[in-house]
Write a structure and sequence with these properties.
Elements: H1 3-29, E1 36-41, E2 45-47, E3 53-55, E4 60-65, E5 69-74, E6 77-85, H2 86-91, E7 101-106, E8 113-116, H3 120-128, E9 134-141, H4 147-159
Antiparallel strand pairs: 1-4, 2-3, 4-5, 5-6, 6-9, 7-8, 7-9
Helix pairs in contact: 1-4
């Protein structure tokens, strides 16, 4: 491997690794901390410029918060992925989460979109017509989000019966 390739990769990944350690420290050391594991995983999907999902081959750090969510630390932001059952999600008040950006998609068919924050009022109809029993919800957060903010967000998810 060329030395400049290694340097480039280290430049790209160092901020992700630092954020991983920052968040793990906050998530585990505060009173009532969460049980977490972490690793680097590939195969995440992102929508391309045409709005179609495509898989990414490169690994990113992921923090698994036991029983609640995965926190995926990517180059362009942080995604918190969690689930709700069909009964819970159809009754959920999306306003509880303020102006959070999110997407709802299937667990069995994870490439099926059921809506996002822009069409929150239509999500219930989409979900009710689905055969899925539970749904993923992915929240997009800025890379600069701090550990305290993540903790508050995760506590809100807990209070609203999200799980993983």
């Amino acid at each position: 491997m060329a030395e400049n390739t290694r340097e480039s990769l280290n430049q790209l990944y160092r901020p992700l690794d630092e954020k991983l350690h920052e968040l793990i420290a906050k998530l585990t050391k505060l009173h009532g901390g969460f049980k977490v594991t972490s690793g680097f995983y590939n195969g995440h999907y992102h929508k391309n410029v045409d709005g179609l999902y495509q898989a990414d081959a490169y690994p990113i750090p992921v923090i698994s918060v036991m029983g609640l969510c995965d926190i995926e630390i990517d180059f362009d932001g942080i995604t918190v992925t969690t689930k709700l059952s069909k009964d819970q999600i159809t009754a959920f008040d999306w306003n509880t989460l303020g102006d959070a950006c999110f997407e709802v998609y299937g667990v069995e068919d994870y490439l099926s979109d059921y809506g996002n924050e822009q069409v929150a009022g239509q999500i219930e109809d989409n979900l009710l017509s689905s055969d899925e029993k539970e749904f993923f919800v992915s929240f997009s957060l800025p890379s600069a989000i701090g550990g305290e903010e993540i903790m508050r967000f995760l506590r809100t998810l807990q209070k609203n019966h999200f799980y993983y």
